[in-house]
Amino acid sequence: MDSEPDLFWALRGAGGGQFGVVTSLVFAPVPASPAIRFLLTWPVAAAFDVVLVWQEVAPDAPDEVSANLKITVFGVTVFGAGPPPDELLRLTPSTRDITTMPYRHLKESFDGPETGPITSKSEFFAENLPTPTIKTLLDALTPGCELNFTPMGGAYNRIPPHATAFAHRHTRFLLEHTAPTPTQAHTSWTITHPHGTGRVYPNFPDPTLPNWQTAYHAENHPRLAEIKAHYDSDRVLHFKQSL
To answer: What percent helix, strand, coil does the chain show, rounded to 5?
Structure first.
């Protein structure tokens, strides 16, 4: 960026609606090669084995592989781009759909239907969840709740925490607990929280966080606060947990 480099830095990873409204973008497009799309499913009874394998292989997968994990009382799904990890295929999925398509179509294929209001709590993890914790977490799963695991290794961790406003650069995965009620989400979150980093993805806002400044922004919070005071001293752009 040729001007306002601090503002440009803050816009990359501090959460939406904090510093301004981007009115236009200029892109230099490059050709998109065909991509592999995969979707694997198992019955919920296999959830424990899938979590054990997923947290070992997904965060350390090659850059061309992204494998997300979703668990509900109705079943287990691992989906993403790139060749699916062999370790997951060896768990004998109930169904497997592996196809090649344009990357844009791949992204569109995972768009889900609109849902009603949910409560979400999330946290980053730098270490794998212990076996007893996984069992307790799955035993507590109730109808209407989801566990969404997102791998955060690879290129995420090769960028220094101060390079952009997004500070969460030394983690293995993100776990989001969604539920119809705050109590259900909190109950699920408390099971894994002792093993988490205490840091939270800013785009999954949690109004119950006691120290949200550090949870969302980590060591980047002081610089973000200074930039906010400079560019929006009247706090025209504000919400409950805005800087």
So the answer is: 35, 20, 45
